């Protein structure tokens, strides 16, 4: 993967999660995977999905009250 493609894809994630979640996930992924850009993006995608699930569950809990 080229660095420009990595940058483009990485810029999508702050829209889907809180800034602190994005930063901590990114730092952890870089520390864990070093130079492997694909694995870093996979971790970011997983964090995005986890965050979306938490938001959906929170919304459901509010609706059930």
Cα distance, first to last residue?
47 Å
Would you tell me the overall average pLDDT? 91
Extended strand count: 0
SS element count, helices? 3
Class derived from helix and strand content = mainly alpha
Gyration radius, in Å: 14 Å
Q: What is the count of structural domains?
A: 1
Task: Write a brief structural summary.
It is built from 3 helices and no strands. The chain is an all-alpha fold.
Question: What can you tell me about this protein's structure?
Answer:
The longest helix has 27 residues, at about 35-65. The mean pLDDT is about 90. The chain has one domain (about 5-60). The chain is elongated, with a radius of gyration of 14 Å. About 75% of the residues lie in helices and about 0% in strands. Helix 1 (about 5-10) runs parallel beside helix 3 and helix 2 runs antiparallel to helix 3. It is mainly alpha-helical. About 10% of the residues are buried. The chain contains 3 helices and no strands.
Defining key terms:
65 residues; mainly alpha
Write the layout of secondary structure elements.
Layout: H1 3-10, H2 19-33, H3 37-63
